[in-house]
Write a structure and sequence with these properties.
InterPro entries: Aminoacid_DH-like_N_sf, NAD(P)-bd_dom_sf, THF_DH/CycHdrlase, THF_DH/CycHdrlase_cat_dom, THF_DH/CycHdrlase_CS, THF_DH/CycHdrlase_NAD-bd_dom. This protein has about 290 residues and is α/β, with parallel strands linked by helices. The protein has ten helices and eleven strands. α6 packs across α7 and α6 crosses α10. It starts with 5 loop residues before the first strand and ends with a helix. The structure holds NADPH dihydro-nicotinamide-adenine-dinucleotide phosphate and 5,10-Methenyltetrahydrofolate.
Length: about 290
């Protein structure tokens, strides 16, 4: 029998994180009579996005947050969406604003993100927050990268000095997770579609973070034995099941620890969104 990696249980870690946030929300309510508010804006009817938004709404409500989904039609203009964001920026009861991506093609995503009050940007995508992160002075940190780091910290005794390879360089995942690994004193390599000899690069890593969007791309023999593997990829397979960017069956025989898909990074992303909403609440009106 080949060695089996330890499975990193993101579902359990996320439930624990949410329970702690729930206790804090209850304490705030009791002490101040205030309820942190998370507002998610969904434009159009992408079925995957609809599922995520419903899940965010349900989990936020479960821990006692005020959670509001703003569902706008696919024909919403950029000006209308900017007006919606301006209204949420101006509303003191709104602590967190998340605009679900991707947006319809006629809307310029950058202009929308730029319009969100950085203090309410619970996705951590505004240039102010991205810039703070790049400078090592964190504002609001993107949820998925935050979730990856929490899973790594619960898995490894120390990250300092470890070789980390991030596959993917998106603004939402790859870049910010690389910044956080650097802050944790890893030696960080960021690989992408132009990287040569990707398998060899990945084989050097003590920590692999896969954020590509290509099902089962990273094979078992690409991994250093004992490596810790964080699989961010969420890919819908023809049979309807979800698969990560890592070939889990192969990787589990080589890795020391690995996140499953589903049940790994995904649930942590939503828990970290709730955590960021609480962070934004404290910074804005928790004093
Ligand atoms: N679990 C969660 O909570 C979340 C999961 N996801 C999932 O994570 C995955 C990545 O998402 P996201 O970062 O937004 O995706 P993007 O499509 O924005 O970025 C993908 C990155 O992968 C790189 N890439 C593409 N093909 C290859 C290749 N053959 N070899 C090496 N690198 C490659 C691209 O390189 P280049 O820059 O050169 O084009 C790019 O940097 C998706 O499956 C997505 O669904 C996303 C957000 C949250
Ligand atoms: N502005 C913005 N911010 C995001 O953070 C954002 C976004 N837009 N657009 C889409 C991606 C994707 N994303 C996921 C969140 C949770 C799960 C999740 O909970 N997944 C479960 C499975 C869910 C299922 O079964 O379908 C799991 O992995 O166990 C997945 C994916 C956030 N994203």
């Amino acid at each position: 029998m080949p060695a089996q990696a330890r499975i990193i249980d993101g579902k359990a870690a996320a439930a624990e994180l949410r329970a702690g946030i729930g206790r804090e929300v209850a304490a705030i309510k009791a002490a101040k009579g205030l309820v942190p508010g998370l507002h998610v804006v969904l434009v159009g009817d992408d079925p995957a996005s609809r599922v995520y938004v419903a899940s965010k709404e349900k989990l936020a409500a479960e821990i006692g947050m005020n959670s509001v989904a703003h569902r706008l039609p696919a024909e919403t203009t950029e000006a209308e969406l900017l007006a919606k964001i301006a209204a949420l920026n101006a509303d003191d009861a709104v602590d967190g604003i998340l605009v679900q991506l991707p947006l319809p093609k006629h809307i310029d995503t950058g202009r929308i993100i730029d319009a969100i009050d950085p203090a309410k940007d619970v996705d951590g995508l505004h240039p102010i927050n991205a810039g703070l992160l790049a400078g090592g002075k964190n504002g609001l940190v993107p949820c998925t990268p935050l979730g990856c780091m929490l899973l790594l910290k619960q898995t490894l005794p120390s990250l300092s000095g470890l070789d980390a390879v991030v596959v993917g360089r998106s603004e939402l995942v790859g870049r910010p997770v690389a910044q956080l690994l650097l802050q944790a004193d890893c030696t960080v390599t960021i690989a992408h579609s132009r990287t040569r000899n990707l398998a060899e690069v990945v084989r050097r890593a003590d920590i692999v973070v896969a954020a590509v969007g290509r099902p089962l791309m990273i094979k078992g023999d690409w991994l250093k034995p004992g490596a810790t593997v964080i699989d961010v990829g969420i890919n819908r397979m023809p049979d309807g099941k979800l698969a990560g960017d890592v070939d889990f069956a192969e990787a589990a025989t080589v890795a020391g620890a690995i996140t499953p898909v589903p049940g790994g990074v995904g649930p942590m992303t939503i828990a970290c969104l709730l955590r960021n909403t609480l962070t934004a609440f404290h910074a804005r009106r928790g004093k």
